[in-house]
Amino acid sequence: MTVEEKFDNAKDKIAGKAKEVEGKVTGDKSREAEGKAQNFFGKAKDKVVDATEAVKDKAEDAFEAVKDGVDNLKK
């Protein structure tokens, strides 16, 4: 995950939490829900990036295993 992605996701989580608290304090259920949604969105983006990186790592490992297997067959 890049620094920009981490910052963007953290920004969503913090802004979402702030809106949620603001909504609770003012009794604005719409603002509270908006904050919860934004906070959830920031957390979800973290999960997507982590999953994407895991898939990329597995694909690279599989590629290297196949490459090593082909190299061994050539010997």
UniProtKB/TrEMBL annotation:
Domain CsbD-like: 5-57
Signal peptide: none
Any single Pfam family the record assigns to this protein: CsbD
Highest taxon in the source lineage: Bacteria
Family the UniProt entry places it in: Belongs to the UPF0337 (CsbD) family.
Name this protein carries in UniProt: CsbD-like domain-containing protein
Organism listed in the record: Leuconostoc inhae
Lineage: Bacteria, Bacillati, Bacillota, Bacilli, Lactobacillales
